[in-house]
Amino acid sequence: MKIAISGITGQLGRLVLTDLLEEGMTPANLIGLARTPSKAQDFADLGIDVRPADLNDYESLLTALHGVDRALLVSTNEPDNQKRFIQHQNFIKAATANHLSLLVYTSGVNPEHNPLGTAHLATENYLKKSGINYIILRNARYLETKQFDIINDSQCKTIYNSTGEAKFGLALRSDYAEAAAKVLNGNFKTNQTYNLSDNLVSYADFTKVLSSVFNQEVKVQDITSAQFAELLVKMGRPEPVAKVLAASNEAERNGVADVKSDDFKQILGRPVTPLTTAIRRLI
After folding, report:
1. What is the percentage of the chain residues whose pLDDT exceeds 70?
2. Calpha distance 91→54 (Å, rounded)
3. Which ranges carry the NAD(P)-binding domain (predicted)?
């Protein structure tokens, strides 16, 4: 069985490919897809077939997925939702044309109600209509996205929050990667959507854990979405991006990310890494 992973020069794709190796897959049965293959020379040196693949170029994907049985489409970080969907659409079309037996896609929780989920929802709908067997992994938040807050706390700086007391799932990127690797190399039910959402916390819960880890009181201040957007702009984020992120936080304040599921634990075959352990591992 040949398994292909997109975006292997990115953080998640690299981890998934590494996990598949650790699970015992031979390099000859793994295919790494990268827009710039030279950046993945370390994988090529292990005997993995690293192929050029540009998600903006359907023809390159058609060639890259030739002879592949299963593939992981890691959602791209393209900020324009329409362009992002087209990238994903190109990949799905190429996978379908190559008659893959399974396509796994990394989505997000509740994309129907989150401003950041527009491309995810369009991709999910397109994938479901494509005719290819699929598994959708709806990932919650990566702990790594909270690294700025963790650094601020370690330096006794105030953490600003615009999600109120709403809860959201929080886990290490490595846990999400391991789950994707197990799905790719396992026998999970297809044409299903799995919610990878565990370690549900509010910001108050999260900062309590930080207080424990750093043995100091966390200074946290609840602000409005508009104030959060202004803060992001001051930190150097483009205004359109800041507004979308603030709107996403507003959706979370209204409960969009409050999704508790056993899917994560069942796929991993173990509990998700506890938050305290995960933060200590991250720092």
Report:
1. 100
2. 9
3. 7-149
Worst-scoring range by mean pLDDT, 8-22, 63-77, 91-105, 197-211? 197-211
Say how far apart CA 12 and CA 149 lie, in whole Å.
Answer: 21
SS3 124: helix
The rounded distance, in Å, linking the Cα atoms of 131 and 106 is 18
Do residues 188 and 199 touch, judged by C-beta distance below 8 A?
A: no
Topology at the third CATH level for domain 3-140+173-196+260-272: Rossmann fold (3.40.50)
Indicate the SS3 state at residue 144: helix
Can you read off the two tokens belonging to residue 267? 């796929």
**Of the candidates 68, 4, 58, which has an alpha carbon nearest to the alpha carbon of residue 30?**
4
The residues that bridge with 30 in the sheet, in sequence order, are: 3
Which residue's structure tokens are 């005997």? 47
The predicted pLDDT at position 242 comes to 87
Dihedral sign from CA coordinates of 153, 225, 138, 71:
negative
Question: What's the residue count for the chain?
Answer: 283
Q: Each residue of 127-137: pLDDT tens digit? A: 999 999 999 99
Task: For residue range 243-270, list pLDDT tens digits in order.
Answer: 888 888 899 999 999 999 999 999 999 9
| Distance, CA of 132 to CA of 107 (rounded, Å) | 17
* Whole-structure pTM value: 0.95
pLDDT tens-digit readout, 165-184: 999 999 999 999 999 999 99
Angle at Cα 33 formed by Cα 68 and Cα 109, nearest 5°?
90
Report the C-alpha gap between 256 and 168 in whole angstroms.
8
> What does the domain layout of the chain look like in residue ranges?
3-140+173-196+260-272
Longest dimension (CA), the chain: 56
Residues 6+ apart with CB under 8 A from 5: 13, 16, 17, 20, 30, 31, 32, 33, 71, 72, 74, 184
